[in-house]
Structures are given as C-alpha cells and as structure tokens.
Amino acid sequence: MIRSLLTIALLGSQALVNAAATKVEKRSIDEIYKAALAEGGVVTLWHGGDEANSRDDLKAAFEQRFPGMTLNVTVDLSKYHDGKLDKQIAEKNVQVDSVILQTLHDYPRWASQGALLDYAPLGWDKIHPKFKNKGNAYHYGMAIIAWIGQWRSDKLPGVEGPVEWEDWVRPEFKDKLVLTYPNDDDAVLFGFDLIMKEFGTEWLDKLLALNPRWVRGTRSPRTILTRNDTDLSPVAPYNISFPSKGRFVSWPQAGAILKDAPHPEGAKLLHSFMLSKEFLEPRGSWTVRQDIAPPKNYPSILEMPGTDPTAFGKWMADRAAVERLRFYLEDRIGTAQGVSPIVDDI
Predict the structure, then answer these.
(1) 226 burial class (0-12, 13-18, 19+ CB within 10 angstroms)?
(2) What is the pLDDT of residues 270-319, one digit of tens each?
(3) pLDDT for residue 231 is more than 50
(4) Do 147-249+308-333 and 3-145+251-283 have the same topology in CATH?
(5) Which residues of 130-145 are buried (b: 16+ CB within 10 A; e: fewer)?
C-alpha cells in the first residue's frame, strides 16, 4: 500500500549561520573529473535505503561516465548511517565523502557542528529554492522520493482498484495487504500521521482488522507483490495510485559532502553528476531541478495535488512528536520483527 517511488532528488530550508562564503563550482565537469582522478579516483558514498544493491545503478552509471573512478557506495537505513557518521565526526576520523540520507533533521545539526562542506556543485543553481537553503550550500536536495499505492489487478479479479486511503481498508482486502512497519521507518510513519490526521484512528482500527502483513523495508512490499519494477508508468497487471482526497508523502532526499572528506574532489564530481541533466532526464521522474520536465501526465512535484514535499523535513525536525507517534503505533502494531531489510531474503 504505502510504497517507495523510485526517483531521486532533496531537502529543506532551515537557515544556518554562514561563517564563510559558499564555494560555488565554476569548473566544468571534465575539469572536476581530472582533479578527482589526481586525488586518487575514489569516492565513498553512504546512501540511505533498505536494499544493499539499490544503488548499483548509480555506481554503474558513474563509473561508466568517468573511467578510472571508483564509487564505493554503502546502502543502509539512514537511521543507522547517521549514528555511524556521528561517531566518525566525534572521533575526528571521517572516512566517508558524501552522504545522501532520509534523516533530514541531521543535516542542520551537522552543519552547525562544522562537519559539512559549504559547496554548491554544478547544477545547484537549478535546484528549486524550496529544496535548498538560502545563503549556503551545506546540504540540498539530491532526489525526489514519494510513496505510492501499488496493487495487482490479476490478484483482485472483479475488485475496484484502491485509490483513496479509505479504499485500502475495505473488507475485501483482508489478508491481502503488505505494509512496511511505520514504527521502523520515519517516512512511512509520516504517511500514517497524514492519514490519521485526516481520517482519525478509526482508519487505523479498520486497517488492523484486515490483518495486514507487516515487513521491514520499504521495498519489501513491492518485492512481495512482484519481482518486476513498478514506476509511474506501470505495465498490467501492476497498478499504482495517488489519493485525490487524502495526503501522501514526498520529500527531497538530502545530500551533503563532509568537510573532512578523504576525497572531496571525488565527492564534488559525484554530486555534480547526480544533479546533471545528463543523469536525471533519462530517468523520467520528478527531480529537484526546476528546468527538467516532470514525468509524463504529471505536474511538478510542487504542484502535485495531495502532497507537500517540504512538509516531511519540518515534521522530522520535531523529534519529540515523531517519537510519540512511533510508540503509539508500536503499541498498536507491535515492534518491528525480523532482521534488517539490508540482509533479509525478501
């Protein structure tokens, strides 16, 4: 039901004290490439996600575009990456060059600690103002992510496909729903918050009465649904829907370069590449750039009915409220069961 849309792009706009002028990239991407090769030809990226191979596409595209470069990308849950990075920062032993994470509340803190590089890569000027900070470039949107509903029509013969959130709790879906534990993923938790604020806890009562299967990881429901990809242009019998009455989750995934990155030139090359038209346009998805057309038959993410991509970052900043909701749902649903989705067999 609540699923991740494969897309990439990010962040919010908390004002930070800017101790020094932002370094705006003036070199061409080929000049940055030469500097990155001279530096050693390596870049280490920690990327949020719940499948170990989910950024193999990025690694392949980057290394093909820039022969001689090696992208060491480690995918793990953002809530695990941030704690490990905190430890490296505290010990003054930073070993990662770039982070692209869901934990949007971490970036202002890291910036205030002086841990991030105030650097505007190529393409930064094309990022929508709502997806970057005014006055600095410590962190900014790298990718747009959204949750969508997905179902298989061949598994629901004669049943009208669900669109609105109230459709998903119809009695005919008993024992047929697969959902990510909201108490295990803050973006899913935010989705439940939006739904319950509109439809009340009665909606949750109806959902739980349907005996959904709860899993760890936001890709697991789709994997269970099908091994085939589902995107904004699905092929039968796979279908997607956005609610026309309720709200759904979207946000810009934040990216930043560490000030003490071992390979800053490699990180600059990576960020410039990921924000380039060359990389983003062929993906046919929403992006943080203002000058790239939205997916066919859809408006821009900022004009898409039913969502506000800037809301998630603000919601994430109120950690007390997030934790209250997490424990409320954990009490209703139970603690997340199973090993990390990074190592499970789903």
Answers:
(1) middle
(2) 999 999 999 999 998 999 999 999 999 999 999 999 999 999 999 999 99
(3) no
(4) yes
(5) bbbbeebbbbbbbbbb
Angle at alpha carbon of residue 317, lines to 17 and 128, rounded to 5°: 65
Percentage of the chain beyond pLDDT 70 is: 88
Tokens 């790239």 appear where? 292
Where exactly are the structural domains of the chain?
A: 3-145+251-283, 147-249+308-333
From CA 41, how far away is CA 60, in angstroms rounded? 15
| CATH code, residues 3-145+251-283 | 3.40.190.10
Residue 238 gets the label, from left (phi > 0), alpha (psi -120 to 50) or beta, of beta
* Mean of all residue pLDDT scores within the chain: 89
Asked if pLDDT for residue 200 goes beyond 70, the answer is yes
Distances (CA, A) of 37 to 54, 74, 260: 26, 21, 18
Residues 6+ apart with CB under 8 A from 220: 50, 178, 180, 341, 344, 346
302 vs 290: CA distance, rounded Å: 10
What are the φ/ψ torsions at residue 9 (nearest 5 degrees)? 165, 150
How big is the chain, counted in residues? 346
Provide the CATH topology of domain 147-249+308-333: D-Maltodextrin-Binding Protein; domain 2 (3.40.190)
Q: Report the C-alpha gap between 278 and 305 in whole angstroms.
A: 28
